[in-house]
Structure formats: C-alpha cells, structure tokens
C-alpha cells in the first residue's frame, strides 16, 4: 500500500517549508505521515512518533511535530516543552484550525506548508537562529 499521499512536488514544497522555517531558528520541525492512527486520540500517537524520531533530544526542547493520519482524517501538532512554554495559549489550537481549513478539502500539502511557516515564525521569535546552530533533526517527511 502506498503510504504517501503527496506528489513529488507537494513533498518538495513541505520539505522546503521546513527548511525555510528552520533557517531563522534553532528550533526543529518534523512531519510524520501515515494512513491510520493507532490511537483514538492522535495526540497519543504523535507523542509516540515524537519519541521514535528522537525529537525530545533537541538542546532547547524546541522541536515541533506535525502528525497526519490521512486515511483516518486525524492530525496533531505537538511542541516540545521548550516551545510549548513560550507560545501564546491559543497558538497550537489556532494552528490546528488553519490546517483543518485546508485538510477539509484534502489540501494536505498546502495546509502543512502554511502550518509549518506559522510554527517557524513562533520558533524564530523565541528561539532565534544562532551562528553555531546545527540542524539537529532531518528535514524530510517520515512515513509509516
């Protein structure tokens, strides 16, 4: 079964959104995509994936995971402790609303790209890029 709902162009656009967002921040953004969510609550699955991808290992605990189970039409956005403590209270919810508005019409790549850009703006504000910053996590999309 094909576990990738994106065209090559869409994948490139998402990866480019991650790279652009990370250029201005020490934060790390990952996207994980799979057809089905193993839990009733996608946040629970996102927590598992976050750990599997080693996202908790960033120096400033500023990783952000965009999780999408496209067949089940479930998704979650999970920020590590460092970023979660700094963003405005409604930030994750309003970002989920943005994604939901695109996902409703199956515009997953568009929604993810805009959500990544939005998360990148927050990361830039609270975790600006430092000259000694290293890309701690891969920018590619992970698939199950």
UniProtKB/TrEMBL annotation:
Q: Which Pfam families match?
A: TPM_phosphatase
User: So which residues are the signal peptide here?
Assistant: none
Q: Which residues form the TPM domain?
A: 6-121
Q: What PANTHER family does the entry give?
A: BLL7265 PROTEIN, UPF0603 PROTEIN YGCG
Q: What is this protein called?
A: TPM domain-containing protein
Organism, by scientific name, is Spirosoma linguale (strain ATCC 33905 / DSM 74 / LMG 10896 / Claus 1)
């Amino acid at each position: 079964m094909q576990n990738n709902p994106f065209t090559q162009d869409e994948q490139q656009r998402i990866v480019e959104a991650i790279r652009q967002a990370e250029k201005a921040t020490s934060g790390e953004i990952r996207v994980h995509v799979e057809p089905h969510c193993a839990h009733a609550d996608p946040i629970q699955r996102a927590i598992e994936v976050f750990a599997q991808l080693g996202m908790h290992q960033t120096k400033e605990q500023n990783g952000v995971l965009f999780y999408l189970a496209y067949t089940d039409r479930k998704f979650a956005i999970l920020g590590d402790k460092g970023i979660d403590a700094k963003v405005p209270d409604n930030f994750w919810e309003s970002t989920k609303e943005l994604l939901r508005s695109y996902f409703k019409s199956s515009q997953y790549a568009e929604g993810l790209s805009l959500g990544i850009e939005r998360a990148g703006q927050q990361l830039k504000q609270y975790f600006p890029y430092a000259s000694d910053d290293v890309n701690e996590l891969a920018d590619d999309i992970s698939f199950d």
